[in-house]
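Example for reference:
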Amino acid sequence: MYSYKESCKIMFTPYIAITLLWIPLTRQIENYYQDPLIVSSLVDFIATAIVFIQSYIYKNTSIYDPYWQIPPFYLLFYWIYRAPIIHNIWIVIVPFVYFTRHNFNYFIFWPGMQYEDFRYPMFKRKFKSDILYWIFSFVGLHEAVTLIIIVGLTPTYFSIFQSTGIQNIALFYFGVIFALSAITFEAIADWQLLPWRSRKTDKFIDEGLWRYSRHPNYFGECMFWWGIFIMALGLNLSNWFTIIGPLTLQGLFLFFSIPAMEKHLLAKRPTYKLQQQRVSAFIPWFRKEKI
C-alpha cells in the first residue's frame, strides 16, 4: 500500500516527463512533418507510450486516467502557437474550462495508487494472461483512448485553422452556451455524486440530477463535445465533417461506458434494477414513480 505522497510521485512522474519532452519531441517531428495535427498527434502518441510504461511498471492502468485531461492542454497551446490568427477567443476558452474542470474533479476524489478503475480488473479477468492484458492495455486503453481524444477535438482544431471568421454568429454563440452549460451540468452531477463514491452501502444515488438520469455526468460530457462541434459549424459550415468528434465520444459512452457501469452497479447493488426501471439511462427525463 502506497502512501498518498508516494502515490502522487508515482502518478505525476510520467506527466512531468512528457511535459519536459513535449517541446523537444515536437521540434524533432517538425523536421519531418509540418501539418500541426499530424505533429501534435504523433507527439501525443509517444507521450501516451511513456505513461503506459509507468502503468505497466506499477500494474495500474489508472495511471493513464488523468491523460484524458492533461495533455489536451499541450495540444491546444501548440495549435494556438501555430495558428496564424484566432478568430474568436471562445474557441480555446471553452475546452480550457472543460479540461481544467475535469482535472479538479479527478484529483479531488483520487485516493492514491490503491485506486484502479473497475473496468481494468474486469479486462484482466477476461484475458487471463498478464501479457495479453498489457498488450490490450497499451493498444486499447492507452493509445486508442488518446486517438479518441484527438478525434473529439477535431472541431476545435479546424475552428482554429480552417476558419476565416464567424459565418453564423447566432449558431456559434449557441454552441458556446451549449458547451458551457454542458460543463456546468456535468460538474453539478459529479459534485452530487462525490459523497457517494466512497460510501460502502447497497444504496445508490437518487437525488439531484440523478433522479432524472442514471448517468447525468455522461450526458453532460457528451453534450460538451456536441457543443464544440456546433461552435465549429458556426464558424464555418464546411466544418460539418468534424461531426466525427462528437459521434465518436457519444458512441464510446452509449456502447461501452454506460453498459459497463450499469453492469458494475447491478452486480454491487441488486436493488439498482429498480432504478433502471424508473429512471432514464442517459437523457434526463421524467421518472416512472409507479414502478
